[in-house]
């Protein structure tokens, strides 16, 4: 509730605000993510957003879909691992389209395994 009330104070969420929110970013609604954050801003804030714990399936899916539609590509294990806590937002067809090598590389990375 605290996180939700905090994010209601903002109309826009540039990367600086997203990074500053830290864990409170979990208070962003799917509507906030869809309508108030550009895909480029999500990409720029990905290192911070990928560390947030407690994303709902709708939130993580909205973020990941917006990232992918903005040109984010999962070409190797590193780019998959960069999604961090948002990896749950990958839909099954996207996961199936990844090569086994990408998955194998990612699961060797300690930050991904966490």
Features:
114 residues; globular; mainly alpha
Rg calc: 14 Å
Q: Percent of residues in beta strands? A: under 5%
| Element pattern in H and E | HHHHHHHHH
The gross shape turns out to be globular
Supply the number of structural domains.
1
Overall strand count: 0
How far apart are the first and last residues' alpha carbons, in Å?
A: 26 Å
H/I helix tally: 9
GO biological process, one term: cell-matrix adhesion
Keywords: Glycoprotein, Signal
Protein name: Stereocilin LRR domain-containing protein
Organism: Buceros rhinoceros silvestris
Question: Could you characterize the architecture of this molecule?
Answer:
The protein has 114 residues and is mainly α. It has one domain. It has helices at 2-7, 15-21, 30-36, 39-49, 57-69, 77-81, 92-97, 100-107, 110-113. Helix 2 runs parallel beside helix 4 (39-49) and helix 4 crosses helix 5 (57-69). The protein is globular and about 45 Å long. It starts with a helix and ends with a helix.
Quick synopsis:
The chain is mainly α and 114 residues long. It contains nine helices and no strands.
Secondary structure blueprint with pairings:
Blueprint: H1 2-7, H2 15-21, H3 30-36, H4 39-49, H5 57-69, H6 77-81, H7 92-97, H8 100-107, H9 110-113
């Amino acid at each position: 509730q605290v996180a939700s009330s905090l994010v209601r104070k903002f109309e826009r969420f540039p990367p600086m605000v997203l990074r500053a929110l830290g864990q409170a970013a979990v208070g962003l609604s799917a509507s906030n993510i869809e309508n108030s954050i550009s895909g480029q801003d999500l990409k720029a804030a990905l290192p911070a957003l990928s560390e947030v714990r407690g994303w709902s399936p709708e939130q993580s899916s909205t973020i990941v879909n917006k990232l992918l539609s903005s040109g984010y590509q999962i070409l190797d294990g590193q780019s998959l691992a960069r999604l961090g806590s948002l990896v749950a937002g990958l839909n099954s067809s996207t996961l199936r389209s990844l090569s086994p090598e990408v998955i194998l590389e990612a699961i060797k990375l300690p930050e991904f395994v966490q």
